[in-house]
Structures are given as structure tokens and as C-alpha cells.
Design brief:
By secondary structure, the chain is mainly β. The two termini are about 25 Å apart. Pfam families: DUF525.
Length: about 130
């Protein structure tokens, strides 16, 4: 099955694409727990080799509660992306409401030692009405 990336952001030749899906089998709606999985593809169309150093997520639920998640790398990795290459990973997000959103940025280091922030596009988290 080919993944459909619904959201994307481009920063200085680096594209971040996101596909998100609600997972009813991982959710416990009766306990107020909804769960989404998201697939990220990072595409390096620059002339530099880039290393993903850190992530910064802003996760908002339907009540306006914001969680900021920061840390090194993604899913335990700090991938190196050569020019023309991409990196994919999958992660998940639990919420205590059936709707919310995520957005943020990655910090990348170029092969010349300079760093920049690459935008992670805003994307909604929305459980189907039948799941609530």
C-alpha cells in the first residue's frame, strides 16, 4: 500500500511530509484515550549532507491543552541524509480528546557545521465520529 502524505513543509530545500492515521485498535475510547500513528518522510534536496539533531513538537488537544515534546533525534536516531536522499520513520501520539493537532520543527546540522530549523507542518488529529 502506497502511503498518502497529506501534509508537507519545505525549509531551505528540505521537505518534511506527514501522513497520519487514527488507530482505533490502539485507542481506549471508553477510558478517554485516542491514538494516532504518523509517518514522516524527510527529503534532502539541498547540496549538503544533513544530520537531524533534535525535534520540537507542539501537541494540542481539543481542550486547548498544549504539550511540548523536545529531545534528541527521532525514534532513537539522529539520521544522516546525503543530498537527494530521504529518511522515513513512524511514531505515535496519544491524546485524551478525539481531536487535536501537532506541529513543530527539527534542528538539522549541515556538513559545514551550521544549523537550521526545518518546519514540521501543522497536521490535525481527528478520530472518526463513529470512534467517539
Amino acid at each position: 500500500m502506497k502511503e498518502l502524505f497529506q501534509h508537507s513543509a519545505i525549509t531551505d530545500g528540505l521537505t518534511v511530509r506527514v501522513a497520519v492515521n487514527f488507530l482505533p485498535e490502539q485507542s481506549r475510547i471508553e477510558a478517554g484515550k485516542w491514538f494516532w500513528v504518523y509517518h514522516i518522510r524527510i527529503e534532502n534536496e539541498t547540496d549538503h549532507t544533513l544530520q537531524l539533531m533534535t525535534r520540537h513538537w507542539r501537541i494540542t488537544d481539543a481542550n486547548g491543552k498544549v504539550d511540548v515534546v523536545e529531545g534528541e533525534g527521532v525514534v532513537g536516531e539522529q539520521p544522516l541524509l546525503e543530498p537527494g536522499r530521504s529518511h522515513d520513520y513512524v511514531s505515535g501520539c496519544p491524546l485524551s480528546t478525539p481531536q487535536g493537532s501537532m506541529e513543530g520543527y527539527y534542528t538539522f546540522r549541515r556538513d559545514d557545521g551550521t544549523e537550521f530549523r526545518a518546519s514540521i507542518p501543522f497536521f490535525p488529529l481527528a478520530a472518526p465520529a463513529t470512534a467517539g
